[in-house]
Amino acid sequence: DGGITQSPKYLFRKEGQNVTLSCEQNLNHDAMYWYRQDPGQGLRLIYYSQIVNDFQKGDIAEGYSVSREKKESFPLTVTSAQKNPTAFYLCASSSVEAGHYGYTFGSGTRLTVV
Amino acid sequence: AQTVTQSQPEMSVQEAETVTLSCTYDTSENNYYLFWYKQPPSRQMILVIRQEAYKQQNATENRFSVNFQKAAKSFSLKISDSQLGDTAMYFCAFMRYNNNDMRFGAGTRLTVKP
Asked: Which residues of A touch B (CB under 8 A)?
């Protein structure tokens, strides 16, 4: 079955550490996205990529980094510069030509700073 | 930048009754797309319904329908014959034409009571 897989489901980070969240899709989608979800704030766009080896900052990119070396993969690194990283992170993908039909979302990663 | 506002943080409805969730948005664009997503306790995002701004006819998907008022920049979701499984967070989202990044409202938590 085609879909989008995020791992791990739960992740704990010590202060000052970098951590990487994985996002893989087998839908042959060109575009991939990372959102952060906090209570009462909905989903906020961190980064997105519409083609391999290219990506753009979203509304809250500070303290995060991404790469897009393969079409199927769009990992997100939460760096030590991100002062409040505890949140729920959602990855999504879409066809560039048909993105207006909506996104396919992963099941999310819950990141907690300990 | 486009903004999406959901003014009802929480709502409740009795099973089998009808409920309407509100959404307003701000844009200077003429062509765009609007979406309602459902996020149940599993936190998996599920597309409920979508509307193309250039279509005057309101979208309908089974028990879910929208009231799209383009001049008022309003996009409300009506759920008829509410079921216990409709209990979830509901997010309104906006996407510009020819631009695939989506902007979300803060969400409305809907509880269906037996």
From this structure: 31, 33, 35, 40-45, 48, 50, 58-59, 88, 90, 92, 94, 96, 99-103, 105, 107-108
Show Cβ contacts of residue A106 under 8 Å, excluding neighbours closer than 6 positions: A4, A5, A6, A23, A90, A91, A92
Chain A partners of B103 at a C-beta cutoff of 8 Å?
45
Q: How far apart are CA A19 and CA A13, in angstroms?
A: 7
The model's pLDDT over A47-104, given as tens digits with 9 standing for 90+, comes to 999 999 999 999 999 999 999 999 999 999 999 888 899 999 999 999 877 767 889 9
Q: CB distance from B43 to chain A under 8 Å? A: yes
- Tell me how far apart the alpha carbons of residues A25 and B37 are, in angstroms, rounded to a whole number: 20
pLDDT digits (tens, 9 = 90+) for B44-95: 999 999 999 998 899 999 999 999 999 999 999 999 999 999 999 999 999 9
